[in-house]
Design goal:
The structure is a homodimer. Chain A is an alpha/beta fold and about 425 residues long. Chain A has 2 domains: about 250 residues, 3-Layer(aba) Sandwich (Aldehyde Dehydrogenase, Chain A, domain 1); about 140 residues, Aldehyde Dehydrogenase, Chain A, domain 2 (3-Layer(aba) Sandwich), CATH 3.40.309. Chain A contains 15 helices and 16 strands. In chain A, the strands form 4 sheets. In chain A, strands 10-9-11-8-7-12-13 form a 7-stranded parallel β-sheet, sandwiched between helices. A 4-stranded parallel β-sheet of chain A has the order 5-4-3-6, sandwiched between helices. In chain A, strands 1-2-16 form a 3-stranded antiparallel β-sheet, with no helix packed on it. In chain A, helix 8 links the parallel strand 4 and strand 5. In chain A, helix 2 packs across helix 9 and helix 11 packs across helix 12. The first copy, chain A, is globular and about 70 Å long. The N and C termini of chain A lie far apart (about 65 Å). Chains A and B meet through strand 2, helix 11, helix 15, strand 13 and strand 16 of A and strand 2, helix 11, helix 15, strand 13 and strand 16 of B. Strand 13 of chain A pairs parallel with strand 16 of chain B, so a sheet runs across the interface. Chains A, B: Its main location: cytoplasm. Chains A, B: It is found in: Cytoplasm. Chains A, B: It is an enzyme of class 1 (oxidoreductase).
Chain lengths: ~425, ~425
Amino acid sequence: MSAPTVSPADPASGHADVEQVVTGLARSAKAASRSLAQLTTATKNDVLLAAADAIEAASESVLAANADDIARAEAAGIEESLLDRLRLTGARVTGIADGLRQVAALDDPIGAVIAGKTLPNGLRLRQQRVPLGVVGIVYEARPNVTVDAFGIAFKSGNAVLLRGSSSAASSNAELVRILRETLSDKGVTADAVALLPSEDRSSVTALIRARGLVDVVIPRGGAGLINAVVTNATVPTIETGTGNCHVYVHAAADVELATRVVLNSKTRRPSVCNTAETVLVDKKIAADALPKIAQALQSQGVVIHGDEPGMEPATEADWADEYLSLDIAMKVVDDLDAAVAHIDQWGTGHTEAIITTDLAAATEFTERVDAAAVMVNASTAFTDGEQFGFGAEIGISTQKLHARGPMGLPELTSTKWVVWGDGQIRPA
Amino acid sequence: MSAPTVSPADPASGHADVEQVVTGLARSAKAASRSLAQLTTATKNDVLLAAADAIEAASESVLAANADDIARAEAAGIEESLLDRLRLTGARVTGIADGLRQVAALDDPIGAVIAGKTLPNGLRLRQQRVPLGVVGIVYEARPNVTVDAFGIAFKSGNAVLLRGSSSAASSNAELVRILRETLSDKGVTADAVALLPSEDRSSVTALIRARGLVDVVIPRGGAGLINAVVTNATVPTIETGTGNCHVYVHAAADVELATRVVLNSKTRRPSVCNTAETVLVDKKIAADALPKIAQALQSQGVVIHGDEPGMEPATEADWADEYLSLDIAMKVVDDLDAAVAHIDQWGTGHTEAIITTDLAAATEFTERVDAAAVMVNASTAFTDGEQFGFGAEIGISTQKLHARGPMGLPELTSTKWVVWGDGQIRPA
């Protein structure tokens, strides 16, 4: 196992040592970020393509490291769904490499001028995109995130500190070893990417408190992880991915269309954050729509939590639950006002949908509902960076500051005002 | 004193009560924010203009409340410069009202579409500006901030929670009373603005921990206040206004121009965050430039901290100090690399300037220096929302997330993706 080359932590050491290790890695990342900000697009793409080739070429060692992780996970009795997320195959390794190639093909956001003007006194202003600097990512089992996050952060000129799951420690270490080796081969600082120790939570704590060294931390994972990061951080954070999403079937809905969209919103991939967790059915259409939608869901094995016959009795907890499984809550609401009020109370600001043929209702819903994405007559499953055409996604922000919704390359940038003059001074 | 109408805190009550009061006000603000987001531009402008008139009409009661504050401050022996910031006059009250009229004249950022596309499957996406929701502002003595902050927050569709200085408590209470009365008269929720108790720091603590109710807190004031807010908050924050700004006089500088720009950068208003605090003089030009610049500064009463004869001896603390006074540090540096390294080490990411006639040097400096604003041959005093043509400013962000540099109306907004379809579902 090659962990020591990328994470010089002694696994036997205590929290104070982990903090020192993380601070040291953050300091190196900060230094690296100065030169990464100056890289040309050509150099960055060259590194990304070389890293893709290197990962494919090292497929055997990556799979061997992953086999270690799988063996440990099996010995620990980890459930099959998690094992599947952890497991790499030859095809998955190729997929990881292809992800880097896709990022290489994307537009470089750095240097883009997003505003500018000439002032009456002749000063020429331009506001241009610059990297954030050092980005920390805290994530769970899937090793592909290690490479994806590096690719997106690197293309947008940032150094990245990765804190993956301990269950994927061997896979992550091997992948980061390959990335750092490629960087060095290309004459770019290897500190563009580093893997933090993952033995316990102390490395997360050190990362989220490295003020002055880390510019943002993005947690990707369950609600518990996200909440712990966001409430304890002293560095800026971006909340991602908690999705208690609703589909509101309005009085003027096309019931066949509603059934199709609800079914897709729930069953396409029940474990992801854009899956629908509650269906709100307008009472004026409930007698017709509710049994049809319920039957379609049940025929696909979905358990419905609600107050109608044949459903699991619903409690308040069902309105709050992000099931992430083949479960859905169903509720009859009086009207659009009641639907919006329910969403205001229980939604997490991720994705909310209305099914209707009524223009005024659709417009009112999109204006009043406060969420990262509001859909009219479309599946909640579309809230996704790839689907939105970003080409890559680092997560889906459910906060309002900095970025909201799917985050691509531009969301990992900041801006700088550059002002050119010829001796202007400001009057008193 | 009319504080009870806007801040129902019993001044004799303990911290737990203050927390309850703040949470209650935050909850009301959150509820108000739902309807504020839906106001038309016409309604918002109508309220702003009516509030301006109401403040002018109530000038007498505002000045009487301010006289209370001044009397308390004098009794407490507060220094004259702070008294001046606290003091209102008839002309200053008119200035406050005119500020609201200026905001009414600005473009409404809400509803602006900043991106959009049609996907191959026919889904029509648009990304539109929406309010942040509830904005908290923590600020120091000047009562005009109370009205300015309301104006900017209201025009951008937000509810605002104001936590002003206890020294301005009477002035702030009277101003907020007028604002709330005007809102009610116009049929808009008065909870668009509320003043928090200011007896002690506990209201700040409650505000910055009101997760789920407050969308962002912006501290405006000294470094101590800003640091306390940013490191203890569990809600998102925006750091503002700490400015350790440098002017680097490059080897190829026009010395007369350099002298003029340095003088303006330091002496125009030494107490504001965009004032220059250190001059870095390239050693290749130092023999000529340094005495000329030093003499010009000294002739205006500026005390120079440095290693040359006639200067106050400089220590490391001088490189770190944000003097905010008629003091400046001066240092001879080897070259542009050394200037950039000094700024990397000591700068606060606010405004950095280079004086040079050399295009390559100017370009390299603007690209390499990591700050909200980088000036070429221009005074650091230009980093300002009014100067940049924003029409109004809520502060100058020195962080990289969400907003960087002067913040106007668009910086108090978030975005929402609105997606229109006709039954699209996402393939597996």
